[in-house]
Amino acid sequence: MKLGERVKQRRLDMNLSQQSLAKGIATQSQISKIEKNELQPGSQLLFNISRRLNCSMDFLYKGDELDSQLEQKLIVIERLLEDRDYEALIPIIDGKYLSNGSTDERAASKWIRSIIAFYKYEDFEQAILLIEEAMNLIDNEMNVKLQLSICNTRAIFYYRQNENSTAKASLTKGLQIAKRNNIENHYMIKLLYTLSNIYASELAFDRCLQYAQSAFDVTIKSYKYMLYSELVYNIVQSRLQLGIHDGTDIKQLEIALYLSDLSKKHSISILIRDLMKKLDH
């Protein structure tokens, strides 16, 4: 994306007209030519444009500054989501934490609001409405990790509402985005894990095993172990249902149980213990 295109995108993200951007610093015609890359602005004009667009001149030249800022914000948000600290998330979406007016931050705000509506208030209708609005904001310029988070959350919502076909479509879109951007990290793991859960609910254990194993392989490759226990459970449960389990499964479950107990994931620990009893028999 060239400078002119970045100026235009940032202006649209902030809901400014060319006339509003130009007021007091340039003519509308100049702004139009800049956005079409027909005019290279001088340093003073570019400085004034950057101030009005609430970004730095470097961002207009290189486009990476706001992505970096959003990355840091997403780290904080994801930590709170993992802890299910919804009370701490409310000031984030109601305050100025997500306030630069960019498409990414508007999508992030809708994404977080949908999660709070779904899990804290159990307002499923509002949650679906918000996640659909966030989904509709996705484009190729959006932060990739945010795109994947929105796709996965949307899939979980529809899966919980027993609308598996819609959930799978959302995950397929997420996996396509991940493949296109060469993403192999915990975002990819989450997408594959959700997909394995959907197929487990449909008793399609061959597909469940396929996607759980793919997620497990990425887990080992990327050293991202946050869903290790859950993935081992899905893998061994599928192998048991398919009649192909062997002696290595118990050892895997023992490691998974140790990690889930260590992380105080009581629900998955219970499931693993029950599965170990079935294998003992």
TrEMBL record:
Entry superkingdom: Bacteria
Domain HTH cro/C1-type: 7-60
InterPro entries: Cro/C1-type_HTH (IPR001387), HTH-type_regulator_Rgg (IPR053163), Lambda_DNA-bd_dom_sf (IPR010982), TPR-like_helical_dom_sf (IPR011990)
A GO molecular function held by the record: DNA binding
Gene3D superfamilies: Tetratricopeptide repeat domain (1.25.40.10)
Name of the protein in question: Putative DNA binding protein
Naturally occurring in which organism (per UniProt): Mammaliicoccus stepanovicii
Lineage of source species: Bacteria, Bacillati, Bacillota, Bacilli, Bacillales
